[in-house]
Task: inverse folding
C-alpha cells in the first residue's frame, strides 16, 4: 500500500507539472508572414527600431527585430522584405532585409505625362506633382533630362509602379512641350511682343498683354525676323494650373491685332482642292473657298500640300472673299473629320487599348478613338482590359474620347443576345400582389416582366433565389424572358460558404499529447469558430501554421461557424503562377450602391474591390444574390480582391440526380480549370473549385450513394453541389403506376 501511495504521488506530481507547462503555452500560436515592397518611411535619429512603412503596410520594429543588410543599406526607396506576425492588431516585424531592386520590379508599371507642378526642394528625392498626380521619387528613381532640365512648368513623363498608397516613380524624363498637349489642349494666339526674358529666351513673355511661360521644351522660330519688343509673333500654348505654357513661339509677318490686318482670322481643316501648279488661286479647305494671291505665304513644315492633308489658313475678308494671308500644313492630329460636330456615345468591347498608359488609340467595337490627357476614365465595373465592355463618350470631330468607363458584360449584348443572372428578389410589382407583370428588382437590378415572360417554379416572393434570363432593349431596359424560382435553395444554403487559405492562427489547448482543436481559427485573414461538431480531416498533412486548408462554414450573425476544416495540397492555395492566393466562395450579401468599387460582403466576410480587380461574369451578372468566387490578398489587414467571378449557385443547376459515386483524380486549382471528373450513377460530372462538397452525413468514397445538382456548360455537366447520403436512413417513395 505504501508503494502504491508513492506511485500515486508521483503520478499526481507529474500531472501537476504537465498542467503548469501547458499553462505556459500561449493559447493562440501566431503565424509568421512576409511582405515585400519599397521602403516608404522608416525611423529617424540613426535607429532602426520604430515604425516602418513598406509597400503600403505599416510595421513595428523593436529590439527583437533582426536586420539583414546583405543587399545594401535600408533607406527610403530601397526594396525590402519584412517577416512579421500580427499581434494585438499590429504588424510586428521579426526581420527586415534589404533586397535588390529587381525583387520589387514585379509590380505593374504605368506611364503618365504632364507638366511639372511641384518638385522637392533642394534635390530630387521626395514628392513630385506632375500633371495632377503625385509621385514619390526615391534613391532608385532614374532622371532623364535629355530634353532639358526638369523644372516647374516643363513637360515630363513618369514611369511608375503602385506600392501601397503611393505612386513610386521608377523614371522621370523631360519631354517636348507638345507631348503635354493633346487634342483640344493646344491653343494659339497672334500678337506683338511687349516684353521678353532679359537673359535668353526662357522665362516669361508678355505678348499683347498676356503672359506666357517659355521653358526648355519650347520651340522657337525666327524665320520672319528676330525676337524683339514690337515684333509680331504667333504663340502656341497650353493652359496648366492657370499658366500659359508656350509650346512654340515664332515670328510672323502679320499680327491679328496689328495695324495691317486688324481682322485676321484662322481656320484649320482638310485640304479638298488647290491649284498645285501655281499655288495662287482658289483653295478649298473643309468645303470653304479661300483665295491665295502672290502675297500669300506658304509653309510646308508638316509635309507637302496634297488633297486630304491637314492645313491651317490665316485670312481676312475682302468684301465676300476670304483672302489667304498664310497657308501651312499641320499635323493630322490637328484636324478632325470634316463636317461633323457634337458628341456621341458608343458601348462595346475593347479590342485594342494603349500599353502602359490610358492615353492614345483605343479600338472599341471596331471603331478607333483617341484618348487624351483630358479624357475621363472610370473603372467602377472592373479594370480596363481587352474584351472588357465599356461605354465611350466622344467628340464626332476627330473621335476624341471625352470619357471611357467600364460596364457590365450584359451591357454589350444586343436584343438578340440573351444573358442570365442569379439573385434574390428584393421587390415585386404591386407590392407582392398577384399581378406579376411590371418591374422586378433582382440582385440590385430592375427587370421588366411582360406577358411574354415565362415564370416557372413559383410561387415568387421577396427573398426567393431566382434565375433570370433577359436581354437589353435598345432603350437600356432589361427585359426578362424567363424567371425560374430556385425553391430548393433554403435559408441554410444561403448562409453556407467555403474558403481556401493558410492557417495563420489556431487554438492550442488541452492535455499534453491530445490537442483540442475547438476555438478560434484564423485562415486567410478570416476568423472561424470550431465547435465540438466541427469535422477535421488531415489527409494532406497536419494542421500546422502556414498549412493550406479548406474550411466549409455557416454564417450565424457575425460569427463564422466552421463545419469542416481539412488540410489540402499546397498548390490549392496558389494561383496559376504558383503565388499564394486566398479564395472565398459564397453569396453576395451586400454591394456598393453604385458600380463595383467599394466594400462587399460575401459569405459573411468583408472584401474590398478596386479599379484593379478583374471581374468575370460568365455565369451571370455580378450583384446581390450572385454566387461568386473571390481571389484576394491581405494588405494591411484588408482583404483586397484581385479577381471576382460569378458561378451558378449550389442547388441552382437544372440537372438533379442520385447514384453511386466513382471518384476521379486530380487537384482543384484556383484557376477553376475542370480538373476532376466524378462519375455518379454512370454519368460524368465535372468538379470545380466552386462545387460545394457536403460529406456531413457520410464520407465520399467509391460506391457511396450521393445526390448531385449540376448544369450543362460547353458540352459537359458542371456540378454545383454533391451530397453524400447515409444509406441506412434513405427512404425512397413508392411510385404506383
Result:
Amino acid at each position: 500500500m505504501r508503494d502504491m501511495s508513492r506511485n500515486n504521488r508521483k503520478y499526481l506530481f507529474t500531472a501537476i507539472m504537465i498542467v503548469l507547462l501547458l499553462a505556459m503555452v500561449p493559447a493562440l500560436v501566431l503565424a509568421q508572414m512576409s511582405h515585400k515592397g519599397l521602403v516608404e518611411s522608416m525611423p529617424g535619429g540613426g535607429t532602426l527600431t520604430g515604425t516602418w512603412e513598406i509597400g503600403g503596410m505599416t510595421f513595428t520594429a523593436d529590439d527583437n527585430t533582426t536586420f539583414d543588410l546583405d543587399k545594401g543599406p535600408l533607406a527610403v526607396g530601397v526594396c525590402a522584405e519584412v517577416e512579421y506576425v500580427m499581434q494585438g492588431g499590429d504588424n510586428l516585424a521579426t526581420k527586415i532585409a534589404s533586397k535588390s531592386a529587381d525583387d520589387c520590379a514585379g509590380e505593374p508599371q504605368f506611364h503618365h505625362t504632364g507638366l511639372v507642378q511641384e518638385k522637392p526642394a533642394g534635390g530630387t528625392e521626395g514628392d513630385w506633382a506632375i500633371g495632377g498626380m503625385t509621385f514619390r521619387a526615391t534613391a532608385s528613381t532614374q532622371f532623364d533630362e535629355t530634353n532639358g532640365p526638369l523644372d516647374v512648368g516643363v513637360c515630363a513623363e513618369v514611369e511608375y509602379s503602385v506600392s501601397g498608397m503611393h505612386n513610386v516613380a521608377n523614371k522621370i524624363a523631360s519631354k517636348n512641350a507638345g507631348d503635354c498637349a493633346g487634342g483640344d489642349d493646344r491653343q494659339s494666339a497672334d500678337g506683338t511682343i511687349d516684353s521678353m526674358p532679359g537673359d535668353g529666351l526662357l522665362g516669361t513673355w508678355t505678348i499683347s498683354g498676356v503672359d506666357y511661360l517659355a521653358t526648355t521644351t519650347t520651340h522657337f522660330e525666327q524665320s520672319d525676323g528676330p525676337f524683339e519688343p514690337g515684333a509680331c509673333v504667333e504663340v502656341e500654348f497650353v493652359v496648366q494650373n492657370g499658366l500659359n505654357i508656350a509650346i512654340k513661339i515664332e515670328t510672323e509677318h502679320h499680327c491679328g491685332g496689328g495695324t495691317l490686318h486688324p481682322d485676321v482670322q484662322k481656320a484649320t481643316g482638310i485640304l479638298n482642292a488647290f491649284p498645285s501648279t501655281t499655288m495662287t488661286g482658289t483653295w478649298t479647305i473643309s468645303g470653304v473657298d479661300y483665295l491665295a494671291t502672290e502675297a500669300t505665304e506658304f509653309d510646308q513644315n508638316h509635309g507637302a500640300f496634297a488633297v486630304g492633308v491637314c492645313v491651317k489658313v490665316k485670312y481676312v475678308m475682302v468684301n465676300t472673299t476670304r483672302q489667304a494671308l498664310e497657308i501651312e500644313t499641320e499635323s493630322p492630329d490637328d484636324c478632325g473629320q470634316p463636317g461633323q460636330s457634337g458628341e456621341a456615345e458608343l458601348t462595346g468591347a475593347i479590342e485594342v487599348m494603349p500599353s502602359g498608359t490610358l492615353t492614345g488609340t483605343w479600338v472599341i467595337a471596331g471603331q478607333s478613338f483617341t484618348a487624351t490627357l483630358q479624357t475621363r476614365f472610370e473603372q467602377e465595373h472592373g479594370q480596363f482590359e481587352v474584351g472588357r465592355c465599356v461605354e465611350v463618350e466622344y467628340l464626332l470631330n476627330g473621335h476624341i474620347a471625352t470619357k471611357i468607363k467600364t460596364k457590365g458584360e450584359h451591357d454589350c449584348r444586343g436584343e438578340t443576345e440573351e444573358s442570365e443572372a442569379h439573385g434574390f428578389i428584393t421587390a415585386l410589382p404591386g407590392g407582392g400582389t398577384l399581378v406579376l407583370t411590371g418591374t422586378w428588382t433582382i440582385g440590385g437590378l430592375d427587370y421588366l416582366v411582360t406577358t411574354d415572360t415565362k415564370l416557372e417554379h413559383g410561387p415568387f416572393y421577396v427573398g426567393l433565389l431566382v434565375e433570370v434570363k433577359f436581354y437589353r432593349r435598345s432603350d437600356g431596359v432589361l427585359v426578362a424572358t424567363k424567371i425560374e424560382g430556385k425553391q430548393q435553395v433554403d435559408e441554410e444554403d444561403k448562409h453556407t460558404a467555403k474558403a481556401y487559405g493558410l492557417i495563420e492562427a489556431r487554438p492550442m489547448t488541452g492535455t499534453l499529447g491530445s490537442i483540442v482543436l475547438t476555438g478560434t481559427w484564423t485562415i486567410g485573414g478570416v476568423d472561424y469558430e470550431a465547435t465540438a461538431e466541427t469535422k477535421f480531416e488531415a489527409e494532406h498533412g497536419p494542421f500546422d501554421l502556414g498549412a493550406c486548408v479548406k474550411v466549409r462554414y455557416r454564417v450565424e450573425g457575425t460569427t463564422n461557424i466552421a463545419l469542416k476544416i481539412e488540410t489540402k495540397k499546397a498548390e490549392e492555395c496558389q494561383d496559376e503562377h504558383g503565388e499564394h492566393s486566398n479564395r472565398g466562395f459564397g453569396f453576395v450579401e451586400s454591394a456598393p450602391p453604385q458600380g463595383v468599387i467599394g466594400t462587399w460582403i460575401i459569405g459573411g466576410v468583408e472584401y474590398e474591390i478596386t479599379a484593379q480587380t478583374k471581374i468575370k461574369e460568365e455565369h451571370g451578372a455580378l450583384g446581390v444574390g450572385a454566387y461568386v468566387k473571390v481571389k484576394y490578398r491581405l494588405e494591411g489587414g484588408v482583404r483586397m480582391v484581385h479577381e471576382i467571378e460569378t458561378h451558378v449557385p449550389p442547388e441552382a443547376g437544372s440537372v438533379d440526380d442520385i447514384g453511386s459515386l466513382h471518384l476521379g483524380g486530380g487537384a482543384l486549382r484556383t484557376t477553376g480549370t475542370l480538373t476532376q471528373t466524378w462519375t455518379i450513377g454512370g454519368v460524368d460530372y465535372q468538379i470545380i473549385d466552386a462545387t460545394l462538397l457536403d460529406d456531413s452525413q457520410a464520407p465520399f468514397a467509391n460506391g457511396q450513394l450521393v445526390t448531385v445538382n449540376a448544369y450543362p456548360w460547353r458540352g459537359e455537366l458542371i456540378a454545383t453541389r454533391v451530397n453524400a447520403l447515409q444509406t441506412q436512413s434513405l427512404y425512397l417513395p413508392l411510385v404506383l403506376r
Observations:
- The helical segments are 2-24, 491-494.
